[in-house]
Design goal:
2 helices; alpha+beta; 21% helix
Length: 146
């Protein structure tokens, strides 16, 4: 008996983006040698306040290790949808969000895969990045944190 399952490209990409986004806090915690729950002085788990941390970094440069080597990428915006009261409370993040990075279009990664992103404060994070439209010589990379 042959069993086949089908999924759309969109489902596959969104699943990969969600998985990659969930790995970011774990990678940072592993580099720090602590689990996210073991940090002292935090009023809420790190993942629940993560969107605010990223919003404070808008305008700051990151390095994206892509096909052309390490490329500077500026965090251009962080967008969060309205809070969904039906969102399960046991998810990794209380508030999902999307981070938008601007990169020189000539050096920008192709997207649709996981890239290593470096920042002095956040450390090394593996993010699934999608490439958006190029505008005025800049490519837009999106990271969905769900």
């Amino acid at each position: 008996m042959k069993i086949m399952s089908r999924s759309s490209r969109r489902t596959f990409v969104m699943g990969g983006a969600a998985a990659a986004a969930c790995m970011g806090p774990l990678a940072v915690a592993q580099l720090a040698g602590k689990s996210p729950a073991s940090r002292k002085g935090a009023a809420a788990p790190a993942s629940r306040s993560e969107v605010a941390e990223w919003e404070r970094l808008v305008g700051v440069s990151f390095l994206v290790a892509g096909e052309a080597g390490k490329v500077p990428a500026k965090l251009a915006a962080v967008m969060r949808p309205p809070v969904d009261s039906k969102r399960p409370a046991d998810l990794a993040r209380f508030q999902p969000f999307t981070a938008y990075f601007e990169v020189d279009a000539r050096l920008a990664p192709a997207g649709q895969q996981t890239y290593r992103v470096l920042h002095p404060a956040k450390g090394m994070i593996d993010l699934f990045l999608t490439r958006g439209a190029d505008k005025r010589g800049k490519a837009v990379l999106l990271a969905l944190f769900n």
